[in-house]
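Minutes, methods subgroup
Present: GH (chair), OT, SY

1. OT presented the first of two proteins processed in the latest run. Sequence and structure tokens recorded below as shown on screen.
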Amino acid sequence: MKRTATAHWQGNLKEGKGTISTQSGVLSNTQYSFSTRFEDGIGTNPEELIAAAHAGCFTMALSNQLGEVGMTAESLDTEAILTMEKTDAGFTVTEIVLDLTATIPGADQGKFEEAAQKAKAGCPISRLLNTKITLNAKLVAAVK
């Protein structure tokens, strides 16, 4: 399986601008620029897209892991919080925190936690990233 995306850029770093498009068309000439990456400009940026990819990948992987132990979530909500800092090597993604809230009626807390850790370690985006990944997992509906 292969997936593609394209980027187009015009101009220098600070005043230039570009667009990003994806094979599926979900992103189609979506604006990005210095201001969308390092300030509060309108558009997207590579780090936001990585956070979205990680949140989506982890959440799907968790759904699979839960199925392996006989649980089906009513809902799984994940926020991926990516931190980028300037290091000696230059700007570097130093951490991603996955904040998960899961609603799983009748769930076993121990099996849930184990499934969440397996999903964190096993999702392809987690394995792609060379950074610290922290998981905060909250189960809303567990066996009392």
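2. SY then presented the second protein from the same run.
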Amino acid sequence: MLNKKSQATRAIFCTIACCILSLYGHAQSPSKEDVETSMLKATQFMFDTLANQNGFVWFYTQDFQPYGELKPRPSMIWVEPPGTPSVGLVLLNAYEATGNNYYLEQARKVADTLAAGQHPSGGWNYFIDFDPEGLQAYYDDFFSKCWGWQEYLKNRGNCTFDDYSTTEPTRFFLRLYSITKDKKHKKTLDRALTHILKAQYKNGAWPQRYPVEKSGPNYTQACTFNDDVILDCINVLWEAADTLDKNKYRKAALRGMQFYIDAQLPAPQAGWPQQCDQDYTPVYGRPFEIDTVSLQQTTTNILDLFYFFKRTGDKKYLAPIPAALDWIEASAIPGATDHTHTNFYEMGTNRPLYIQQTGTTIDDVHYTESYELEGAYPYAHKMRPDIKGMRRVYNELLSLSPEEAKVMFQHERSTKPLPENIIGGYMAVALARTARSPEGIQAILEEQDERGAWIDPATVLDPYSPFTEAPSQYQAHTVGGYLARMYRMIDYLGSL
């Protein structure tokens, strides 16, 4: 039974939820039929006009040239969100919101495409290439010359957890199987989950890529917080535990959460690095990701620990936070005007560290550590963490009982307007242009052309000189824009 504080907390949450839903209660709200028609037209355009073997990249120019994170071959589709599995997930949400079997059938086609591109170990790379014999030549001729994209310089032949490239398709198959109960989908799902379990180190962490390369140590083998590698492995294992009721997934998720506690650096620099070795020593990632304590990663990990506490009710996840906040507070840079902190601080001295980059091509580029901000490589080198806000949240959570924390978690999960891990890139652009209101939904309907498409701005960095040459600008069909509008409309349908 909830105590008075819990009842009050729930009442506040319900009031907030009702206020949000009331945004859609305007008398002139678009009709259910109009919204469902728009969703269907948009999805038909995606599959009938843009899809490649029922897979997608990130965006298409108006003359239908495809682009992923880099320019793909015609035989490529993108797995990294917002790509093919992200489309699959929105299809499942559309099916559940409308009951229209068309969305489920398209999701099955997406599943067949992703299953065909699954690595033998069970994971996925950033992309799938349906002409693998020609892939090495593309690396030699193009990818290996794209400096700034360290992860594309070499054809590693394994899978990556970076940027949700393995966890997002795993999440899709988990949700698809929960609907279809199809043994074919279960087989792909089991291979993916087994891949995640096998990749987990004994200390609870995950490397950026797996299977681990045999060619010697490199940054892809490090225990990787950066880009939510460890966090999203934990998340998808919790989803698997909840959906399949398998304790092995729950135990693996808890080991990953314990790694956050064990990997915290000692005071007075009680933060976290972006990546470390299996003995918790900070190591380099890409050339501009230094082997030291990271303020950006520390603030991210504090938020993750808040989440772990709310999910489990276990206050051990709050215990590392005060020392981490003390370090952040002590690391303010005297005299800084447009920022208060930087990302990297030297171990021992706690002096701000920056990366200086020289060279203009991949052949002469060079990175060095420096104490000088002027001309520094623009990698989170100017930051302004909300220390007071994090302390306030910490104190609020510390006052909750385990039961109250779990109620908060369940409420936040049930009222989240968009799924995790897809709010970024072109999706964020589309969301920023679309208000979560009846007027916003009406704008979505009015901006859709007769084909069912929307047009959004897209930017492409020069792959050979991304920091010295001007980027290319396009008006394009973006997958993120489709996803954002679909989720807006699905959310709207749920409010009617």
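Chair's summary of item 2: Residues 1-23 have pLDDT under 50 and may be disordered.
Next meeting: continue with the remaining queue.
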